[in-house]
Design goal:
Length: about 160
């Protein structure tokens, strides 16, 4: 299978961002009740329903979730890249949202074994943080600097 291109991955990320843009209203409009959870308590959508999205913060409409699952499934069928999209009310008791994202990425084993071609997009509602965790083979396409730029220039403005 062909490796994922920067254009394909950026296009997918931008589609996800646009679909999640409406979530900024939810963050502001509805108070958040503390729901501390561990990585082990986040349901893995691959095991639950064969999908790619876990929306524990109730930020996505069923239609948006279905669309994301379809886009990611199409990409996975095309080049085997696995992308998980997760929203959580908060990342406590983890020290930081980044630590939570890294732990969840590793706990679920996102990406094909031996290919390390996974991506995790995590939105933590209470902390108002977005984290993108990538497997080693994706880091050449999405290095930390590019991930930071995507979060700062594409995602964060849609949450303001």
């Amino acid at each position: 299978m062909a490796p994922i291109t920067v254009v394909e991955l950026r296009s997918l990320m931008l589609k996800q961002i646009a679909l999640a843009g409406f979530a900024s209203f939810t963050v502001v409009a509805f108070p958040i009740v503390s729901k501390a959870l561990t990585v082990q308590e986040v349901p893995n959508p691959r095991q639950m329903n064969g999908g790619w999205v876990t929306d524990m913060a109730d930020m996505l409409s069923p239609a948006t979730e279905a669309q994301l699952n379809q886009i990611i499934s199409d990409l996975e069928a095309k080049n085997s890249t696995e992308i998980a999209v997760v929203t959580v009310p908060e990342t406590a008791p983890s020290a930081t949202p980044k630590a939570f994202a890294t732990s969840l990425f590793n706990y679920w084993g996102i990406g094909k074994k031996g290919r390390d071609n996974g991506v995790l997009l995590l939105i933590s509602q209470r902390e108002r943080r977005v984290e993108i965790e990538t497997g080693y083979s994706i880091e050449s396409i999405l290095p930390d600097a590019r991930v930071s730029k995507i979060i700062q220039q594409e995602i964060a403005p849609r949450f303001k």
